[in-house]
Design goal:
With about 100 residues, the protein is mainly alpha-helical. Helices cover about 55% and strands about 10% of the residues. The protein is built from 4 helices and 2 strands, in the order αβαβαα. The chain has a two-stranded parallel ribbon. The longest helix has 24 residues. It is elongated and about 60 Å long.
Length: about 100
């Protein structure tokens, strides 16, 4: 789902849920998320008055523990890139260099 910088992402999510006819469904929230603040969670709940909002955090945590072969391959590539970037940064670090 995409939205403009000036858009309210919580409103976009609520509108998308309603447009897909899930506005009166059970909606799970990852309450352990670093990005879903208390304010945003409350806003989403108020924008979905007919939905039953439940804590989905434990399920999300358990799902994150299992990696597909593709996900593992992507993580390996990302780790290699991070390793090369860190090595280049250490090589470039000198007194007086920003």
């Amino acid at each position: 789902m995409a939205f403009r910088d000036a858009s309210n992402p919580i409103k976009v999510v609520a509108e998308t849920i309603k447009a897909r006819v899930f506005g009166a469904s059970v909606v799970g929230l990852d309450r352990d998320s670093h990005f879903l603040t208390v304010r945003r969670a409350c806003e989403l709940e108020s924008l979905l008055p007919d939905a039953k909002v439940v804590d989905f955090s434990r399920v999300m945590w358990e799902m994150r523990q299992i990696k597909s072969p593709l996900e593992l391959a992507c993580l390996e590539v990302a780790a290699e890139i991070c390793g090369r970037a860190a090595a280049a940064a250490f090589d470039a670090a000198r007194a007086g260099i920003n």
